[in-house]
Amino acid sequence: MTLYMIGLGLGDEKDITVRGLDLVQQADMVFLEAYTSILGIEKERLEAFYDKTITIADRGLVENDAESLILEPAKSQKVAFLVVGDPVCATTHTDLMLRAKQLSIKVEMVHNASIMGAAGACGLQLYNFGHTVSIPFWDDKWKPTSFYEKVKYNRQGGMHTLCLLDIKVKEPDFDAMMKGRQKFLPPRYMSVQIAAQQLLEVEDAILQQRAYDGRKTLCIGLARMGQPTQKIVAGTLQELSKADLGGPLHSLIICGECHELELEVVKEFLVEGSTHQLDNNTKLESLPPSDQER
Amino acid sequence: MTLYMIGLGLGDEKDITVRGLDLVQQADMVFLEAYTSILGIEKERLEAFYDKTITIADRGLVENDAESLILEPAKSQKVAFLVVGDPVCATTHTDLMLRAKQLSIKVEMVHNASIMGAAGACGLQLYNFGHTVSIPFWDDKWKPTSFYEKVKYNRQGGMHTLCLLDIKVKEPDFDAMMKGRQKFLPPRYMSVQIAAQQLLEVEDAILQQRAYDGRKTLCIGLARMGQPTQKIVAGTLQELSKADLGGPLHSLIICGECHELELEVVKEFLVEGSTHQLDNNTKLESLPPSDQER
């Protein structure tokens, strides 16, 4: 019948829209996508609010079993697929939507706030953002830096960069598996602190193309946006690499050129003891002359 | 006491969040911002749904009388300021928030979907958008083209550009005013058709720097996003300059480099008779060699 892809917004059970709530309550089955983001509350609170049973859809379920568990029932029933934020924000959901349409299942979308919109609460204008990048967890052997070129291009054009920070949910525990047990590692969410440390390392030790300056470029750490405990902290990467923003989810913005009105809002979020001058030429200070002239 | 800045989302009265609805219903005064965007429904339907009287806040009220009409009451009462889309999406609202904070009024924000998020419903990934631009109405004497450079920079970096189209609400009627009457022109909303025509003129007759190609570059027209009559139409600018997408609001996307998954969704929106090949190298086809090499 219909697959409803419903955005839950960012905070708790009350951030769903009235339309979304109506549809969840009419649905025959309810899934909650739980591996590209997290809400500030547990599934049980959502279940109580909707008066519905919710099935958690982890990566395995969506990528391997969506056909039988979600799409097959959606041919004859109303299936609600709940997504933290907005349903058009992640590639996975586009894929699910396409597969539904191929099976002639009607797809209806209910939009909501996402981190890409809520990031504007720090005072930076959403118009001025470029490419959004993802920063993955590093380990000793694997230190991908593919986001760096995009940050550089954004900043050369005066644009801000929203960095989405890695989430590791339901990662297999290989040690346990070698002993024949199926076990998963506890979930990990990258903090602003870790992201800032990795960004400093890319710039200072690995690529060194002055896409940004760890001691000068204005950056903004975001934690639990849209939730009552939301925290916003502004400063240099060096300052943010020591800041503690508390529990997940975190995101980080690397500023481009800032307008006065933007800085007016950002200044109240400066981390204690910050030495940042909040000058509005953060675009150029860290770029070599050849880049400035382009 | 508190100024609540509450996003209404994009469609009708049911697109407010449950949290937002609770706050509106508890508010002592309710304003609706009505000059940077519009909902698909009339104020009266909102009033009936909230069981509240709503004061329309036009540009004059917000820019000249916010102090006395909105902020002064907010010192001792709960004032809800409703915004179509999300409250962090327009500079005007940032300004109001700052003025409230200067008067030590608590400001609370309720996020919601905005056009910048809902634009993802056409299949383009929100990660791949650069600078958002505004396209103003032209007249015989005044043809501003400041958006052009940003579109060019976005496309050179492979990014899509969301173009917000001009809205003229409560523009003074100078003819009537010269006769001593205060009168306003009927509201005007730029259509995808007009925007495409202006974009063709900038490229073909005014700036000619091949930021895009009116016969080749993939573009997507969006109308009434998030509403039941939502319409999405893809094609070249030449094709869109003849397309009729119906009533407001419209927006337009000029695509950068498209990934296969994006094109997979976009192809179902191709305008009838479109000659677009949906090749995924729309980034480069229109750029001169020197730009490609950079």
Quick description:
The first copy, chain A, has 294 residues and is α/β, with parallel strands linked by helices. Helices cover 32% and strands 18% of the residues of chain A.
Architecture overview:
The first copy, chain A, is of the alpha/beta class. Chain A has 2 domains: 2-113, Tetrapyrrole methylase, N-terminal domain (Cobalt-precorrin-4 Transmethylase, domain 1, 3-Layer(aba) Sandwich); 116-293, Tetrapyrrole methylase, C-terminal domain (Methyltransferase, Cobalt-precorrin-4 Transmethylase, Domain 2, 2-Layer Sandwich), CATH 3.30.950.10. In chain A, 32% of the residues lie in helices and 18% in strands. Chain A contains 12 helices and 12 strands. Chain A has helices at residues 18-26, 43-50, 59-64, 66-74, 91-102, 115-118, 147-156, 174-178, 192-206, 237-240, 260-266, 289-293, and strands at residues 2-7, 29-33, 55-57, 78-83, 106-110, 133-135, 161-165, 167-168, 188-189, 219-223, 231-235, 250-254. In chain A, the strands form 3 sheets. The first copy, chain A, has a 5-stranded parallel β-sheet, sandwiched between helices. In chain A, strands 6-7-12-10-11 form a 5-stranded mixed β-sheet. In chain A, helix 7 links the parallel strand 6 and strand 7 (161-165). The longest helix of chain A is centred in the last third of the chain and has 15 residues, at 192-206. Chain A is globular, with a radius of gyration of 21 Å. The model of chain A is unreliable at 288-294 (pLDDT under 50). At the A-B interface, helix 1, helix 5, helix 6, helix 7 and helix 11 of A face helix 1, helix 4, helix 5, helix 6 and helix 10 of B.
